[in-house]
Amino acid sequence: MVYLLLNALWxxxxxxxxxxxxxxxxxxxxPVTLRDLTADSIAPEQNAATYLQRAxxxxxAASRELDDLxxxxxxxxxxxxxxxxxxxxxxxxxxxxxxxxxxxxxxAGTYRPMVDDRATSSVGKFIEATLPETEVLRDAARLLQAxxxxxxxxxxxxxxxxxxxxxxxxxxxxxxxxxxxLTGIACQGISGSLASRVLYDxxxxxxxxxxxxxEWQLAEQANVDGFREALKSExxxxxxGFAHDIPGRNIWFFRAxxxxxxxxxLDALGRMIDVAxxxxxxxxxxxxxxxxxxxxxxxxxxxxxxxxLASHEASTRSVALARALRVLNAxxxxxxxEALPKADLSDLGLPEKATLDPYSGKPLIxxxxxxxxxVYSVGSNLKDDGGAIEQQFEDVGVKPPEPAESPAKQ
Length: 410
Hints:
The protein is mainly alpha-helical. The chain has a domain at 34-233 and 313-398. It is 62% helix and 3% strand. The protein contains 13 helices and 3 strands. The protein has a 3-stranded antiparallel β-sheet. Helix 7 (123-153) runs parallel beside helix 9 (178-201), helix 8 runs parallel beside helix 10 and helix 12 runs antiparallel to helix 13. The radius of gyration is 24 Å and the shape is globular. The termini are far apart.
């Protein structure tokens, strides 16, 4: 009898604390249900999903036509053959409204998935319903990349950079889950790679330089804000998942345990949200402290920390790329960059923060090579690997493309 009374007290206290936490999140304006993450929360014209849904069928059809292109080595290195260039041109001729729909989606204020009420009843159903919309972004990224390659091959550098900016604007709208956010980060990486390739190719207009600086400055801040918003969305996923997706969750005998674990989950995410915009090394240390402070009994809650650590590292990589690209853009717009033996970061007209490595806190590394400027961060291993930006955990930045092989070698 005493045990039952103690358990009843535990159930009451843990349940009261959990309800108080959820109510506090609601009062602060944060999402607490999956429905809060859907299109019902914003006007259709402000939702990128409105325009992506209209473009979906054409995007799928265009992707099918370009499947062979996407799998080719020439697409990977950005040097399409004449036949492939004609194929890209024909696809945009067949689907003339597709680009305008993607530009409208990129110009929208935010992104919220368009799903019905049934999909918000559990995390599994919600992911199943929203995954196709995330795949639309992937298709859009590949198509805009192909278009930029076509424009660059035809000497339209300003147009190619405009295509990369459309992709950049579109990708930074995605933050209604950590999966969406990471998909957006990956697409920003594609946009950054496109932009650097164009800058290395040759001169662009001053207006394009200005646009590039403006948009990547916005993207850098959007990465920090987006990471925080994605954490808030994960909190709503957790509230729904604990309530509806765990067998036996509401059995009275076990309720206090699950309420306690869910409270720990909300506490951990709340603390991570509070420190999300701090410097990389400080944030990583704080996340580790949060992980260590979670009782070992709460295994589900402890599992989220490594995933968030990896997501934060991806976010920091994107910030490093944005800063490296902004530095390259400033260098390339100088009247005679070829004559400069080295770069003075303080003389580029950029804010000091834009020239700092987000990993080390020191200035970005800039080197002059025979093919152009190499600009990079030391990456998460905090070691200068000489500009090895191809490896995930080594350096992060932009480097001149390798020269094309001669016809004999091809």
